[in-house]
Amino acid sequence: MSILLEEKQRAFAELREIKANLAARGWFPATSGNLSVRVGGFEPEQFTFAITSSGKDKSVQTPEDFLLVNEKGVATEATSLKPSAETLIHSEIYRLTGAGAIFHVHTIFNNLVSELYWERKSIPVDGVELIKAFNIWDEEAQIEIPILPNYAEIPRIAALVEDAIVPRIPGIVLRKHGIYAWGANAFEAKRHLEAFEFLFEYVYRSHLLNK
Fold it and tell me: pTM of the entire structure?
């Protein structure tokens, strides 16, 4: 699929803005985390997305921060940049959901709750108002946020994504690693990410209070 220059520029600008916003919150410790925005048309087996390049300090802005890759995670333009090591996970989420943006961050609370509820394989949230951020409007709604193992080999994780996705929950957590949150566009993905992080902190602090 051909990508217009302005589509690429718009995606990079969106990523630059969200990167600065999340870096200011300390959500990218030690160059961790990755962000992507889908660009152009979409078919499950053919699409393009802009993603953060590997090993960059996300608290600073440089011309080498982003690149375009295809559905296989391969760069679509000549470049010496390497996409994030976790690009294949983004590819699978796009393929399965048709999302417009995916944001992945590492925080203390998403790591703690992923371990706390590892045996359950999901993080339970009961009746918290911010569940509505996922367009779930049931009174006293209860959700379960999926947790996957954090294998060293990314293809092993990517192979588990399809069975882990819950249609109404726009996120997956990797154990002692971080959250992947997605949405129809960058605005929605950011809203979902913020809601997940609030809920993770709520669940963990609630667990401490009830011990």
Answer: 0.96
